Amino acid sequence: MQMMCPNCLSQDLRTSRFRIADLARILILQLPVRCRNCQQRGYAFLHQALRLPGRKVTRRKHSGH
Ligand SMILES: [Zn+2]
């Protein structure tokens, strides 16, 4: 079942950055997600969140260290 944003009903969600306040949610197997359409932050169950694309990892290239 696809996650939907509770605010705008968009399905364009991604996993969000963890915060201390998220710990209680994580204990009940929920992960923070953010809607890419309206930026609403919410929570998804672990098995749903793991299917989301997640935020893009932008690795900085180390130039001749
Ligand atoms: Zn939304």
Give me the secondary-structure category: alpha+beta
What count of domains describes the coordinates? 1
Name the average pLDDT. 88
Q: What is the chain-wise order of helices and strands?
A: EHEEH
Can you characterise this structure?
With 65 residues, the chain is α+β, with helices and mostly antiparallel strands. It has one domain (1-54). 14% of the residues lie in helices and 22% in strands. Strands 1-2-3 form a 3-stranded antiparallel sheet. The protein starts with 12 loop residues before the first strand and ends in a 16-residue tail after the last helix. The structure holds zinc ion. The site of zinc ion has 8 residues, from loops.
Keywords:
65 residues; alpha+beta; 3-stranded antiparallel sheet; 2 helices; globular; binds zinc ion
Topology, please?
Layout: E1 13-15, H1 23-27, E2 30-35, E3 41-45, H2 46-49
Antiparallel strand pairs: 1-2, 2-3
This protein binds zinc ion.
Zinc ion (ZN) binds next to loops.
Précis, in short:
With 65 residues, this protein is of the alpha+beta class. It has helices spanning 23-27, 46-49, and strands at residues 13-15, 30-35, 41-45. The radius of gyration is 14 Å and the shape is globular.
